[in-house]
Amino acid sequence: MKLVKSLLLGSAAGFAAVAGAQAADLPSRKAAPVEYVRVCSAYGAGFFYIPGTETCLRVGGRVRAEYTFGERWSERQDSYGTRALGRIFVDARTATAYGTLRTFIRHDINTRTGSYRYGALNNGVNPFSLNGRLNEGNGASLDKAFIQFGPITAGKAQSFFDFYANDLGFSSLRTSDRSTNLLAYTASFGGGFTATLSLEDGNTTGFSNVLSAAGAAGGRVYQGSVMPDIVASLRVDQGWGSAQLSGAVSDRGTNRVAVGRVVDSGDDFGFAIQGGVKFNLPMIAAGDQLWLQAAYADGAIGYLGWGGAAGVGRALGVVGDFTVNPITGVGTKSTTGFAIVAGFRHFWTPQIRSDLIASYSELTMGRVAGPVVGGVATTLKGLNPKELVLGANLVWSPVSGLDIGVEVLYSRVEFSRRIADAKSVALGGPARTIKSDDAFAGRLRIQRDF
Q1: CA pair distance 392, 245, nearest whole angstrom
Q2: How many domains are there within the chain?
Q3: Is the pLDDT of residue 144 over 80?
Q4: What is the pTM of this model?
């Protein structure tokens, strides 16, 4: 028995030795170390380190479903509209010896129908469209794409002229809210004070740099810019809130086309100034804010939020930075105007809030072409619109990042003289005139930000 045990143990030892020798001949493989994604807390919530780098990245976006209802002015219009918007953004930041290196990209894609496609300041106002009912539209836009390296900002970013850029509410007020190609330098002085000098391409803002079509004899054409807009701002951000003073100078060169000849007008320059303040009001409720802003423009009404069309409902007109003498076709007069904006956000509970928003604006234009009487051309004073926009909403946020809300909007415009009723013109009925009009609209929004 002892002999059998000895043989078995000896055999096992031999097999183990042979196996060990063969294993020693095989190549050795060590498992690669696992690199876990690390949270980056240097720039706020949502950032993480890209594995293998010192760059912090945040990826986020938005989905918005929106529905609007408003008064329609004829059977050729839609009384409602729908819109779906998808947004994605990427924010990458790296700490360097020269300051933070930041790259930001935000892209929007949307589809819209009905009164969302009529092209007014607030689509829910449902202005009369001479094109009748419009079909579904899809759009994609590069909203932001910029690089920040220390004090330098380059790319497409929010204009440094802007302060209140429709931060509250669902609807747009008459204010500057411009995303533009720019090159800017920002100096920081400590204590939350900064000053910025920015060269901005006005051709990327969606506002036209041309004369009022109603003010040009025989038409007009855009001459082309010789320089970008020059924007400067001084800003402070502290615990109590923020304040900003900004100004802009812009080139609005055009060719004035007179009867039988073309007159080169050269370069017509416009300017705008704006001041605004935002107060944080935690003494009322956490998150409460009050915005106040005023702006004035001369030959640069895009900085007031105007551009091209002006009107509500059946009262529609055309405005521009300059008007031309309608008799001679030479001599421009700049359009001047101002806009006042106010907004208040109040949290009734941590999950329920309301926004109250309002804007009032006036423009003063030069004289424009009138009817020919007895073979003699006449002139009319400009439209000189006065516009009021009021809005209020109630929003419920049952969970973080989700908003469910309704908003009511009122808009009114009044011109300095009577103009053709857009409804009677479009339907080919008896000619009627109108001097003012107003409209109500309602909006339902469901939005998720992540």
Answers
A1: 27
A2: 1
A3: yes
A4: 0.83
